[in-house]
């Protein structure tokens, strides 16, 4: 057994208590084998002065959109997509997506993220980069059929299905897949009905944006006479293992439907606030038994990929939305950002216990803004920043040590991303 021992830290357990303990991980199985007074490991990671937490899980992202960070701000979703984002995305070349994904991977890992959900394009390239970076991910080709003729629309679905079939299990099983139609209004319903059963046959779940804005809900209600998630259910899009992004404008019936079908929600509070999409009724969802994870969405609508920012936003806006300071309490948001997200993605991670995947973040608590530490869970929800993460471990492999990414060359990644972003915008704007 090849082992990693994380020594001298305080460990956050699934019951949200924290105790001084070492953690021993088996690098062959990628799982935690012992917590407490462990045997010595072949490799050690010093966690003294640190809180060892489950790796943060970001279940909804478009990682390569790091290239569009700060390119277009301060517009509502529909105008932002049509006027700014889609025209630039039409000019994307595979090399851009590779560079943007590398940049996003560096940022995510340094912020303690160990697993992500990613919906984008050129997914074989994305899978290679995420595999090389050492992340765990559930990925899919974002299928958009609006503005496409029948042949192109079908080809997009075929690509989505091929990606879901072919890349599942890549990077020694760290990469899993899903069929990812962009949303209920941007992917053709007839093709959804045709391809969803084929995805089920291939054993892959579905992930899509749903009920993000009012503008997206109204046409579905008008055209079909049912709420969007009832419509999705009629199309066969709500089965155990599927997960949606946003769920901002959901009513009681839809929340019960999600709970009943065991379909989770990737809540993206920063993106929802920035695009003024609305406030998702997260406490109501949690009370109804819906699994909730916390996602960053793409960097263009956030504008960073820091899960601790997101955690805090989820707590703050959750209280505001519920008109209740007790809503989205610290342990609930910490659980959503770890175990909840892992459940959405279908990974046996998000909690530090024997047998679970050894996906961990080691947070340095010896900082002025984390002093005193009356309650580490409170700090995780309200005070910790991504830049406090000292080490990140995925499947027992150290991917960040002393804030240095071990799998990618950060300086080269930044240089490359900058060059690609500049050339992309020049191409898209035609000069
Ligand atoms: Zn999104």
UniProtKB/TrEMBL annotation:
Binding residues for Zn(2+): 60, 62, 209, 297
CDD domains: ATZ_TRZ_like
Enzyme Commission code(s) on record: 3.5.4.28, 3.5.4.31
Catalyzed reaction equations: S-methyl-5'-thioadenosine + H2O + H(+) = S-methyl-5'-thioinosine + NH4(+); S-adenosyl-L-homocysteine + H2O + H(+) = S-inosyl-L-homocysteine + NH4(+)
Enzyme class, UniProt record, top EC level: hydrolase
Annotated substrate binding sites: 89, 182, 212, 297
Molecular function, one GO term: metal ion binding
A Pfam family of this chain: Amidohydro_1
Keywords attached to this entry: Hydrolase, Metal-binding, Zinc
HAMAP family xref list: MTA_SAH_deamin
Family from the record: Belongs to the metallo-dependent hydrolases superfamily. MTA/SAH deaminase family.
PANTHER family: AMIDOHYDROLASE-RELATED DOMAIN-CONTAINING PROTEIN (PTHR43794:SF11), AMINOHYDROLASE SSNA-RELATED (PTHR43794)
Name of the protein described by the UniProt record: 5-methylthioadenosine/S-adenosylhomocysteine deaminase
Primary gene name: mtaD
């Amino acid at each position: 057994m090849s082992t990693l021992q994380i020594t001298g830290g305080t460990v956050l357990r699934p019951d949200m208590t924290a105790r001084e303990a070492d953690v021993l991980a088996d690098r062959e199985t990628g799982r935690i084998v012992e917590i407490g007074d462990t045997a010595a490991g072949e490799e050690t990671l010093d966690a003294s002065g640190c809180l060892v937490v489950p790796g943060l899980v970001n279940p909804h992202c478009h990682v390569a959109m790091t290239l569009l960070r700060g390119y277009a701000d301060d517009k509502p979703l529909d105008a932002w997509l049509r006027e700014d984002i889609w025209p630039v995305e039409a000019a994307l070349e595979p090399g851009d997506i590779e560079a943007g994904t590398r940049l996003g991977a560096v940022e995510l890992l340094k912020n303690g993220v160990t697993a992500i959900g990613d919906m984008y394009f050129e997914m074989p390239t994305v899978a290679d980069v995420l595999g090389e970076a050492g992340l765990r991910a559930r990925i899919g080709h974002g299928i958009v059929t609006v503005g496409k003729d029948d042949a192109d629309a079908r080809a997009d679905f075929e690509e989505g299905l091929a990606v879901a079939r072919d890349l599942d299990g890549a990077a020694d099983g760290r990469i899993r897949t899903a069929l990812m139609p962009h949303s209920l209004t941007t992917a053709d319903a007839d093709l959804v009905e045709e391809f969803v059963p084929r995805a089920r046959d291939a054993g892959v779940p579905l992930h899509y944006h749903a009920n993000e804005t009012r503008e997206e809900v109204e046409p579905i209600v008008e055209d079909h006479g049912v709420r969007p998630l009832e419509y999705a259910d009629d199309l066969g899009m709500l089965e155990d293992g599927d997960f949606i992004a946003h769920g901002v404008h959901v009513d009681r019936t839809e929340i019960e439907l999600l709970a009943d079908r065991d379909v989770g929600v990737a809540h993206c509070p920063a993106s929802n606030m920035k695009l003024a999409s609305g406030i998702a009724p997260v406490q109501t969802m949690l009370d109804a038994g819906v699994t909730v994870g916390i996602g960053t969405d793409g960097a263009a609508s956030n504008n960073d990929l820091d899960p601790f920012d997101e955690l805090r936003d989820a707590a703050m806006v959750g209280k505001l939305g519920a008109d209740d300071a007790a809503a989205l309490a610290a342990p609930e948001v910490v659980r959503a950002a770890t175990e909840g997200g892992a459940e959405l993605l279908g990974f046996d991670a998000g909690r530090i216990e024997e047998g679970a995947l050894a996906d961990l973040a080691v947070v340095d608590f010896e900082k002025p803004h984390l002093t005193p530490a009356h309650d580490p869970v409170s700090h995780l929800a309200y005070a910790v920043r991504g830049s406090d993460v000292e080490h990140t471990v995925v499947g027992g492999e150290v991917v960040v040590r002393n804030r240095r990414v071990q799998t990618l060359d950060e300086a080269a990644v930044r240089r490359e991303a900058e060059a690609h972003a500049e050339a992309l915008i020049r191409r898209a704007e035609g000069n």
